[in-house]
Amino acid sequence: MTDPKTTDMSGGQAAIAALQAEEVSHVFGLIGSATMEMFDALYDAKDIQFIGVHDERTGTHMADGFARASGHAGVILAGQNGPGSTNLVTGLAQAKAAYSPVVSIAGALSSGHVYRDAFQEVDQQAIFTPITKKTWTVPSTDRVPELMREAFRVALSPRRGPVQVNLPRDVLSGRADFGSMPSPRTYRNHSVPAAHPNAVAEAAALLLGAERPVIVAGGGIKDTGAHAAAVELAEALQCPIATSPGHGDAIPFGHPLNAGQMGPRGNPVASRLVKEADVILALGTRLGFNSTFYSYDNVNADAAIIQIEIEPTAIGRFFPVEVGIWADAPTAAAQLTKAITAGRRRADAVRWTEVFQAERRDFLARRDTDAVETHPIQPSGLFKALRRVIPREAAVTLDAGTMCLQATDALDYHRSKSLFSPLDFGLVGFSFAAGLGVKLAMPERPVVSLMGDGGFGMTMSELSTAVDHGINTVTVVMNNQCWGAEKSYQKDFFDGRYIGADVSSPPFDRVAELYGARGFRADSLDEVAGAVEAALACGAPAVVDVAVDPDALYSFRKDSFTHRPQS
């Protein structure tokens, strides 16, 4: 007699049922023969919107942007084993560097064909293991729901990150009796660690006794949407709060204690604070490469560091700490606020904050007055125009490269989760595709994606995806006709011996129109605001091609070429 609680399903149907149990709203993917059972089941899953993409790499960036913006897992489905799955590699490596909870699913070779040099055979388990939190190859049909649950559990557990599930063809086509899919609550953690009271007391004493305290807030504040906890702590101390690079939206731009992004890629005011502070509270940040270049050139070597991190192996990894606290950053921030409220601050710490605030006001004023507003368009003039026209509620996505690195702290982020960048992976070609995922997660907010012409040229085929699904983002292409970072190094350190540095591109505004999107162009600075405003108002996916001076080159990584004389 059949158990009424069981359902006979294919492995592909069970995989989609597992996604439905996770309340997945969007699946990004590219169809392929290896996963036809999943796509057929997806046809009947009316609660899941399938976003068909043109490349698995860019689809993974969409899932990454969706995950970061929504706080839920982003799902990418590579329909084909072999080349379809290997196209995921760049996107998953990017997601790992950003601690983004992407659940990547790929078809895999039939189990009986493994190790026979079969068509499109590649060792997917080996390929994905080093670039994910964990990779599984499902061994049998009856285990599909179990390992799908495990994938979501691992991806969403602190510290979050991408996972890979390989589903062999025979596993997807096989059938089994499955019970009902359990609620995710039954296999997820329900709490986060709080700081030990003794560590809180020790950290509070250090902060209250500091003459030059500074808080550095990172992804542990931004990704949890917990800026209020960090701000409350900064207000209790009346001390400046800087943000790690790429997390400039962790604290609202207009808060009087917000110093902006610190480090070698940050602004000079926030960077000086960390170089001169006597106590540094690293709040949900690793103090990693983008923040410090692992150098005391960017961190006061004499400072007492208090580091609060959800990942215990990150504590003291790059800089020795005075107090290391394994805890959820906002939870520990609230504990510290309570402890500090009972204490009294030093008068010299008050002066430290007053000096910083005066410097910050001066820096923001000079950012406008010193902007170069001549022709051809210079980056500082472009960023000034964008500051004026990008809506306060907008989300901004950035690429890598010198133009976007300059934009990181040249734009203003008024709301938490407004800045999405490649972070430590430094990926060119991320911004436009990630912006599509961000828009689907935040449909009520404008999304503006900044890219160079090289990066947009890599990924512009996804204009079809944007048009087909009505994903109305605005992409500003800063078109300087070159690979700007590399050309600047060739100029500054290799006597202008340019090779492979120039980029040839079609007019992107016209390309956008051919895809069915809207295209706008700005050849002079006074055309930028009008073009971006029109793009934001057009009600369609839009591209703004901005002609930026090809000679406006800037070498960010001068430290990499200290062995060479500057030209």
Summed up:
The chain is about 40% helix and about 15% strand. With about 575 residues, it is of the alpha/beta class.
Notes on the protein architecture:
This protein has 567 residues and is α/β, with parallel strands linked by helices. The chain folds into 3 domains: 7-187, Thiamin diphosphate (ThDP)-binding fold, Pyr/PP domains (Rossmann fold, 3-Layer(aba) Sandwich); 197-364, Rossmann fold; 371-561, Rossmann fold, CATH 3.40.50. The chain is 38% helix and 17% strand. The strands form 4 sheets. It has a 6-stranded parallel sheet, with helices on both faces. It has a 6-stranded parallel sheet with strand order 11-10-9-12-13-14, sandwiched between helices. The chain has a 6-stranded parallel sheet with strand order 16-15-17-18-20-19, sandwiched between helices. Helix 3 (56-70) packs across helix 18 (431-441). The longest helix has 23 residues, at 347-369. The model has no long low-confidence stretch (mean pLDDT 94).
CATH superfamily of the largest domain: Thiamin diphosphate (ThDP)-binding fold, Pyr/PP domains
Strand content: 15-25%
Overall CATH architecture of the largest domain: 3-Layer(aba) Sandwich
Q: State the low-pLDDT regions, or none.
A: none
Oligomeric status: single chain
Query: Helices and strands: which structural class?
Result: alpha/beta
**Overall mean confidence score, pLDDT:** 94
Please give the number of β-strands: 20
CATH class of the largest domain reads Alpha Beta
Q: Might you state the CATH topology name of the largest domain?
A: Rossmann fold
User: What is the count of distinct domains?
Assistant: 3
Residues in helix, %: 25-40%
How large is the radius of gyration?
Answer: 25 Å
Between the first and last Cα atoms, what is the distance in angstroms?
83 Å
- Biggest sheet strand order reads 3-2-4-5-7-6
Envelope shape: globular
Number of helices: 23
Tell me about the largest β-sheet.
6 strands, parallel
